[in-house]
Amino acid sequence: MKINENYKNLKESYLFSDIARKVNDYKAKNPDADVIRLGIGDVTLPLCKSAVDAMVKASLEMGKKETFRGYGDEQGYAFLREAIAGYYKKRGVELDLSEIFISDGAKSDLGNMLDLFGADNTALIPDPVYPVYVDTNVMAGRSISFLNANAENAFLPLPDENTRGDIVYICSPNNPTGAVYTRGGLKKWVDWANACDAVILFDAAYEAFIGDDSLPHSIYEIEGARTCAIEVCSLSKTAGFTGTRCGYTVVPETLVRGGRSLRKMWLRRQTTKFNGVPYIVQRGAEAVFTEAGLHEIKENIAYYKENARIIADALSRADVRFSGGVHSPYIWLKCPEGMTSWEYFDFLLKRANVVGTPGAGFGKNGEGYLRLTAFGDRGNVKEAVNRIMKLK
Ligand code: PLP
Question: Residue whose CA is closest, atom 12 of ligand 1?
Fold first, then answer.
């Protein structure tokens, strides 16, 4: 038998295991060191009350014959798709319920979506990048062209007359750089994709961190996007669902490639290979989109954003160059004094007992950068910042 040889082309990812090993070695040698992790990408605040109450209620329903539910609706329960459609409507985006697919999170859909596209397409992927975009394409044997995201383009690459590709990934607000596209920037990508028959995979996992309504939360706020873009979103960072697992993907009815409706293809793919998100979780997600739920998650996001502000403020005072930290939980900073990502990682660990994520782990353009995250505890963030400031 033959295995999928493409897996041999995956680069081993040592990033998080290397970080863990270095931190553990350091702690073994310095047992009294109070190491603060500002590298974690996971949320730390608990689920909001509305979601928890809804899930408790739904659990009890599952234990009674009259209210028990088995397999759910194939695209996700209508009550949740209606809640999501209502959320988009507030920003002037009209979605049909048939265009919304409930998922167990953005990562699965980002990977599974590639089932719809031929292996001989080229994927256009920004560098630095959330590594899932790269690895899922390598697994499928697809060739990849990288888009340089760097300080010169404010980490927001745009297409030009030489840009070629079939599937382009746009993540805004961006992981790892924290950069956010303006409407004008996204419009350039939408026009490019419509002109050359490409498809945009728009990752909106951090949309809830946008605090300025002139910035687009959804690609569908941009004219023309309904004929070229798929949007993948998640309640992971919006509402702390990293462990609970729920997200959604929008595939517009008007998105047609090769004469076929991608929405219909995705429906077929999902009904064949996916059996839905638990009823209890979908009820929890529905509650997130109620007035009370949205208010509660806003408070959690405000907490993380205040952490980000504290970090960004300190970096500004220390004249460290960085992006992000305003409409994003990520701060992407230039390592001082020409240090490489790992040199600065070691420096911060040893001198301040603070752990970041070396930018080099997100692609070649990440070399010389470090990612800090705002998902931690306020006291720890303040303490970490004090320590970093004292290093100056
Ligand atoms: N997209 C981006 C840019 C992410 O950073 C993450 C998680 O860190 C995901 C998607 C995955 O989210 P989910 O938990 O919904 O699978």
Answer: 106
